[in-house]
Design brief:
Radius of gyration of chain B: 17 Å
Number of strands of chain A: 24
Low-confidence stretches of chain B: none
Largest interface: A-B, 86 and 94 residues
Number of domains of chain B: 2
Distance between the termini of chain A: 73 Å
Largest sheet of chain B: 4 strands, parallel
Oligomer: heterodimer
Shape of chain B: globular
Order of helices and strands of chain B: EHHEHHEHHEHEHHEHHEHEH
Distance between the termini of chain B: 23 Å
Structural class of chain A: alpha/beta
Helix content of chain A: 40-55%
Helix content of chain B: 40-55%
Shape of chain A: elongated
Number of helices of chain B: 13
Chain lengths: 677, 241
């Protein structure tokens, strides 16, 4: 038995893992289905999204050129990395050139990187490379932090610790972090939060992945629920973003379409809690953007090109019956190394980017098509899997690169076909080809098989084959028919014709006066609170007093500060890690997702809406817009902006929703109904 | 009178000839003549799925040429083989100026059995009757490969006397997957277990499928586990008057 099959069997027999996987799968599938109900036109959106991704991949260099130029204009330092080595060298160079201020103060000797989730960094094994050079890298996504403490790789691209049960996390935190053993998920989360808050505040570099780059504006879009993605891009003096070079969309409008599909597919959310759009570095901040090739150019000119459409939502993993048995750690290469990308897309990407070592992954599929059905950009994964099996990976061993030239790719040397297939099966299938290529040989073979099966099982309809045949492992084999269909065939007559009904599709849209109502309903559903007011400052003071809050951080020109003073409140325009409540303006609200838009500006509202336990947003009723596409252009004129949808949250431990991770635990929105400006 | 070409599929031909007879029975009852080209063998899907494209091509070319000499729509009692003709043949011959148009011509006249009954003949009720519970397993390639789901369900709903009960998680693969069931027997076994567990929950003695692959796989699993449920191709149910 191959190491791969051995690993599969271990996963299947690991009851803890199977329970964790079942939980993950079922909740994800349900969540996704429910989320798509709110966009009845999702089929059209999906096709449009596919077209957009296809166009981007077709003209990738043009879009990259635009994206890079815009970023340089925005003051971002852009690097291009051909491969993993180059990317790591860029990191090391940035780390070496850092201002030495913290180290000179003698607080720490090592450079500290606070890291938010990035699959591209997994692909280039970044943490390992940096740690070897004496740089400390700390994962700050709760799930990633857990797997880092366990010295593991993430087992799922969205929920890295989906393979663990809370008892395992409890034991881990007890051993590594020295807290008393507890399986209380909020306590475990709060422990990680406390430790990681120090990391954010002291890190020399904040590191993040990128969900989308916008060619037109240079925007870097980063989605997180916990708030760590905001921390690493807001607090440390240097931000490095690592981005697979294919993750582009042409403009903000296209981005908003993608954002209507990605969170729904990934976590069943209408929008992630924090949808960040970064244009220019913040005051005093340096931003580096590293664009990673690492095999993508090669893939772009190959029959596996469509795999580059992927927006890394993980829906195909959740839908896949193979992943459901395996989890990410069982997707291994011939050298037993864990594939950087698991699941259906990983079984195409891993062999596509890294070659023969991972060909075997593509054979572990029934081509059932659940992945294609789940994919928000309609990637034809079953066909891509058959292409990998046909040896059409651009890095096929000892072959010249396979290109997308469609005639060539179906004329490959026979030796490269059947990639990852066992020699026995290959031999059997080739024999069958010979038989099936001739009608008479086929009939003769049927007769021989029938005779043999009658000889083996004279009195049963079924043959019991031994387990090593594969089939005999869990089922019996039907006996060949004594008289085949072709021997029985004849003609009959008769007539009856009925009628056919067709199916209907319904639609729904939020309009005008309904917006406030919808905004309220959506935000409350996320665990936020909405208050209608005609005097925001007055009502806010009452709220603060009811909560015994004395001091707040306030964005300038947001509240009536005379009134604040009269009410005896203390406030500051400078955000402070010790203050419990931050008040910011919301540039707009979104009716269909309950989101508010907060942008960088005087008084640092980006920090004010992130560091405190309580975030309070002041929103004018007239600024509630129907949906993201109506609002997204507003980010153009900002350095950085974030759509906030509810309180910070995580579901990284046993898929249990826990509110309040790195960002605020509470969000209160005061909707100002007064008509005065 | 309308005539169709029957592509019987290698599995039905060799293992379940009664399914083929039922297909002919139903079509004849609806006034459709059935022709059978005896030179036909297999559609080449096992080779195609395994990545052996040269082999798959050889069989595909032979099959395309064979049906070029015949008239009428091609009807097959398998969503999987219909998918092979309609989708995979086009993939095999992409960019081939000689074979692609020929493959497209075959694809355009190919129908899965229930799809042909409902979409082409407009039949919703074929006059079948059945006693007791039935539950339906949508084969992956019927459901997701060629998007045929409404048709078999509609036909089953109109079977007199039958009580149709929904199979839990019906859309999940049974674990056959052609060569996967021998290359990865451990995975295949898990899905099969789950499928049978779901079938048990329905209490239905009969599981209806549209594909002989699922039929031999699920029935083989039931037999191994000593269970008594039977797996029937939908044609057999529809031919029961």
């Amino acid at each position: 038995m191959t190491a791969f099959r051995q690993r599969i069997l271990e996963s299947i027999n690991n009851e803890t893992l199977q329970t964790a996987l079942d939980n993950n799968t079922e909740r994800r599938l349900k969540g996704r289905a429910a989320a798509f109900e709110s966009i009845p036109d999702w089929r059209e959106r999906r096709q449009r999204a596919k077209q957009i991704r296809a166009d981007v991949i077709e003209r990738l260099e043009d879009y990259l050129e635009k994206f890079i130029a815009k970023n340089e204009e925005n003051g971002v330092i852009v690097h291009r990395a051909k491969d993993a080595d180059e990317a790591i060298q860029i990191f090391l160079k940035i780390a070496k050139d850092l201002p030495q201020r913290r180290r000179e103060r003698g607080e720490r000797t090592k450079t500290l990187i606070a890291k938010s989730k990035s699959m591209a960094s997994e692909e280039i094994a970044l943490n390992h490379a940096l740690e070897k050079e004496g740089i400390e890298v700390i994962e700050t996504d709760l799930g990633e932090y857990i797997v880092q403490l366990r010295h593991e790789r993430p087992s799922h691209i969205i929920t890295p610790a989906a393979h663990l049960k809370k008892e395992q996390v409890a034991q881990l935190f007890h051993e590594k972090l020295g807290i008393p053993y507890t399986t209380d998920i909020p306590t475990l989360t709060a422990t990680a939060k406390k430790i990681l808050r120090e990391v954010f505040l002291n890190a020399d570099i904040g590191f993040s992945g990128v969900n989308f780059g916008v060619a037109e504006t240079g925007s870097v879009c980063i989605l997180t629920n916990e708030g760590n993605g905001r921390m690493v891009t807001t607090i440390p003096p240097v931000h490095i973003a690592l981005m697979g070079m294919e993750r582009l969309v042409p403009n903000l409008n296209d981005l908003s379409l993608m954002l209507s599909l990605l969170p729904r597919s990934a976590t069943g959310q209408k929008l992630t809690v924090y949808t960040q759009l970064l244009q220019k570095p913040l005051q005093g901040q340096t931003r580096h953007l590293i664009l990673l090739d690492n095999g993508r150019s090669r893939l772009q000119n190959s029959p596996l090109k469509e795999a580059l459409y992927c927006i890394r939502c993980g829906a195909c993993l959740n839908a896949c019956p193979v992943f459901r048995e395996l989890s990410g750690h069982a997707y291994i290469g011939k050298d037993k190394s864990i594939a950087p990308y698991p699941g259906p897309i990983g079984s195409v990407l891993s062999p596509g980017l890294f070659g023969e070592n991972y060909f075997q992954l593509a054979q572990a599929s029934s081509l059932c098509g659940a992945c294609k059905e789940a994919c928000p950009v309609d990637i034809d994964l079953p066909t891509l899997l058959t292409r990998v099996r046909a040896g059409q990976s651009p890095v096929a061993s000892s072959q010249s690169p396979v290109t997308s030239n469609s005639v060539d790719r179906n004329q490959l040397p026979v030796t490269s076909e059947g990639a990852g297939l066992s020699p026995m099966t290959k031999f059997g299938l080739r024999m069958y080809t010979r038989i099936a290529s001739n009608g008479r040989a086929f009939s003769a073979a049927q007769k021989i098989a029938a005779a043999a099966s009658f000889f083996l099982a004279p009195s049963s309809r079924w043959l019991r084959l031994p387990a090593f045949t594969g089939w005999g492992y869990s089922k019996d084999f039907p006996k060949f028919a004594g008289k085949t269909f072709r021997e029985r065939v004849r003609k009959l007559e008769g007539l009856k014709v009925g009628t056919l009904e067709s199916l209907k599709v319904e639609g729904l849209k939020v309009e005008g006066a309904q917006r406030i109502f919808s905004f309220d309903k959506e935000l409350e559903a996320l665990g936020g609170h909405v208050y209608r007011t005609t005097n925001a400052t007055k009502d806010l003071v009452e709220f603060l007093k009811s909560r015994n809050i004395q001091k707040v951080h306030v964005e300038p020109n947001t509240l009536d500060e005379n009134l604040l003073q009269a009410a005896g409140m203390e406030w500051t325009h400078e955000p402070d890690d010790q203050i419990h409540a931050g008040v910011t303006r919301a540039l707009c609200g979104l009716a269909d997702t309950g989101s508010v838009l907060v942008a960088d500006g005087a008084g640092n509202p980006l920090r004010g809406s992130l560091l405190p336990e309580i975030h309070i947003a002041i929103l004018k009723a007239k600024d509630i817009l129907p949906s993201l596409p109506d609002a997204i252009e507003k980010v153009k004129d900002t350095r950085a902006a974030v759509f906030i949808s509810g309180p910070s949250r995580t579901a990284d431990i046993e898929m249990t929703l826990t509110i309040g991770v790195h960002g605020p635990r509470e969000i209160h929105v005061f909707v100002d109904d007064s008509n005065s400006e | 009178m309308t005539s169709v070409q029957l592509f019987i599929t290698c599995l039905v031909d060799s293992f379940f000839p009664e399914t083929g007879e039922a297909v002919v029975g139903v079509l004849n009852r609806l006034g459709v003549n059935v022709d059978f080209a005896p030179e036909q063998t297999c559609c080449g899907q096992p080779q195609f799925n395994a990545g052996l494209r040269k082999d798959a091509r050889a069989i595909a070319e032979r099959t395309i040429a064979l049906f070029e000499n015949t008239q009428g729509d091609v009807v097959t009692p398998s969503g999987s083989c219909a998918h092979q003709f309609r989708h995979n043949y086009l993939e095999l011959f992409e960019g081939d100026s000689v074979w692609l148009p020929r493959a497209q011509a075959l694809a355009a006249r190919t129908y899965e059995f229930t799809e042909y009954l409902v979409d082409k003949l407009g039949a919703a009720d074929v006059g079948a009757s059945w006693r007791g519970l039935l539950t339906y397993h949508p084969s992956c390639h019927t459901l997701r490969g060629i998007n045929v789901d409404r048709q078999p369900r509609l036909l089953l709903q109109n079977v007199k006397g039958a009580e149709l009960i929904e199979l839990p998680n019906a859309q999940e693969c049974c674990g056959f997957g052609g060569v996967m069931s021998v290359e990865h027997p451990e995975l295949s076994a898990e899905w099969l277990k789950r499928k049978i567990k779901n079938l048990d929950e329905t209490k239905s003695p009969t599981l209806v499928v549209t594909d002989a692959g699922c039929q031999m796989h699920i029935a083989g699993g039931l037999h191994r586990q000593g269970k008594i449920q039977q797996v029937k191709h939908i044609a057999e149910v529809l031919n029961n008057v």
